[in-house]
User: Which sequence fits this backbone?
């Protein structure tokens, strides 16, 4: 059996979806930044279909599939599951839904995820919704989540934060350079965060769009500076 990337190279994959020319929004942000919470609001108000990569992987574990144990071990370690597996699950879910507007939550988590998705499906996101939240707040939320998730313990949470900084932030930077990132301050109460989300999804005139893009760019400068400082301090702790 070939890999999904090999299948894409042979032109065997991605075609059904591509023909439907779906709208894709990637939803990114650290663990506990509120991606799932806000996706539920977007679904309710704007008719998108929500596909959470983490939920699809957890369902795969429960289904008792051959990849189940490998996925479970990786999630317990806060690691990122190989793109092969996650992309197949996402593609299947998109095809089976019969819908054409998707919020893809928690994906792409690293450069491998991103490049493989674009290669396999031949599709790119319309934009990337990025929920920015300080670690202390995300940690508090995850420790209070109470959904029985195996990875909501302090040891795995710290690993997930590190993977976010080292592997997921570069993906956000990639799309930022293409002008596709819409950054949201996610440290506020749910309703306030959703008000900012709405401003992105509502149709606007060109002047407002221009203003939103400039504000997003300014926020992203600040964000990248903070990430660099954090990575340097992590390196200093290691030495
Ligand atoms: N703005 C908010 N203020 C306070 N609590 C919030 C806010 N948004 C979400 N929460 C709560 O924080 C927890 C994590 O939220 P959620 O599951 O939406 O995050 P997530 O980014 O999808 O997390 P993960 O990446 O780990 O799946 C939940 O218990 C949720 O109810
Ligand atoms: N693209 C993805 C998305 C998720 N995972 C794994 C690793 C995560 O820690 C875990 C939980 O995801 P969440 O529900 O927090 O979005 O699932 C992955 O490997 N690749």
Assistant:
């Amino acid at each position: 059996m070939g890999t999904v990337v090999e299948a894409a190279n042979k032109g065997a994959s991605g075609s059904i979806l591509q023909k439907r020319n779906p709208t894709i929004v990637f939803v990114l942000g650290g663990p506990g930044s509120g991606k799932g919470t806000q996706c539920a609001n977007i679904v309710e108000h704007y008719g998108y279909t929500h596909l959470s990569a983490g939920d699809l992987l957890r369902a795969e574990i429960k289904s008792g599939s051959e990849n189940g144990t490998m996925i479970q071990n990786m999630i317990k370690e806060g690691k990122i599951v190989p793109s092969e597996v996650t992309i197949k699950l996402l593609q299947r879910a998109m095809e089976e839904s019969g819908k054409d507007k998707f919020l893809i939550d928690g994906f792409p988590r690293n450069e491998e995820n991103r490049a493989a998705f674009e290669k396999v499906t031949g599709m790119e996101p319309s934009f990337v919704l990025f929920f920015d939240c300080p670690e202390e707040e995300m940690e508090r939320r995850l420790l209070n989540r109470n959904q029985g998730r195996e990875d909501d313990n302090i040891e795995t949470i710290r690993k997930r934060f590190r993977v976010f900084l080292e592997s997921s932030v570069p993906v956000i930077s990639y799309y930022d350079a293409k002008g596709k990132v819409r950054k949201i301050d996610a440290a506020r109460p749910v309703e306030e965060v959703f008000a900012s989300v709405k401003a992105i999804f509502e149709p606007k005139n060109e002047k407002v769009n221009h203003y939103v893009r400039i504000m997003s760019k300014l926020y992203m400068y600040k964000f990248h500076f903070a990430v660099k400082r954090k990575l340097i301090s992590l390196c200093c702790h290691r030495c």
